[in-house]
Amino acid sequence: MTGAVRREQAEFSMDYVNLPEPPVTTAAGGGDEGNHPAPGTKLLRLVGVSFGLLCLLQAAVNVSLRLTLCEFYTVFQQRYIQQGWVRFRSSVYYISDARNTWQQSRRYCLRQGADLVIINTKEEQDFTRQFHRFTWLGLYYESKTKKWIWVDRTPLNESFWGPGEPNGFEGKIENCVEIRFFEMDNSWNDIPCGDQNYWICEKEVAP
């Protein structure tokens, strides 16, 4: 009797030892993988945070540069305006109170970091006429190319010649241009570059 009990206990013990271990499951079901982030998750988070910080830094730099440029242009414009320059759109202009040849007038403008005025639009043409003076423009006739060009070497596309101009009056070599008929929309006149005239300097100060 005792031997039978012992055999039963031994069989029971062996059966218990040989039972397989139950799998470890999670609430999501699927082993213990849910306890660890997917491969690359930490790297993606780091990249995202770094990109966000770079965006913030770029925005701060842009604001700082904009404020600096605005301050620069304000000081720049005030300095020129205090010296008798006039602001019109994206340029400042200086209208002389003395007369000189075309070449000497241009040299004066260049010393100021400017050049003789270049007229690109009808609005700018109207602006330059309002001073009611015979003034040099930055337009001249280049004998080599036989074309009228501006001092920045751009060709003459839109012109405002007075009636019958340019004409080389009385056979003169008239290779420079002035505003003469300032009461008219078309006010330009060609005259010899060695004549004496007032002049207009132009300098761009903003886009």
From TrEMBL:
List UniProt keywords, sorted A-Z: Disulfide bond, Lectin
Superkingdom of the source?
A: Eukaryota
The molecular function terms of the Gene Ontology recorded here are: carbohydrate binding
Question: Cross-referenced Pfam families, in alphabetical order?
Answer: Lectin_C
Stretches assigned to the C-type lectin domain: 88-202
What InterPro entries does the record tag this protein with?
C-type_lectin-like, C-type_lectin-like/link_sf, C-type_lectin/snaclec_domain, C-type_lectin_CS, CD209-like_CTLD, CTDL_fold
The record, for SUPFAM superfamilies, names: C-type lectin-like
Official protein name in the record: C-type lectin domain-containing protein
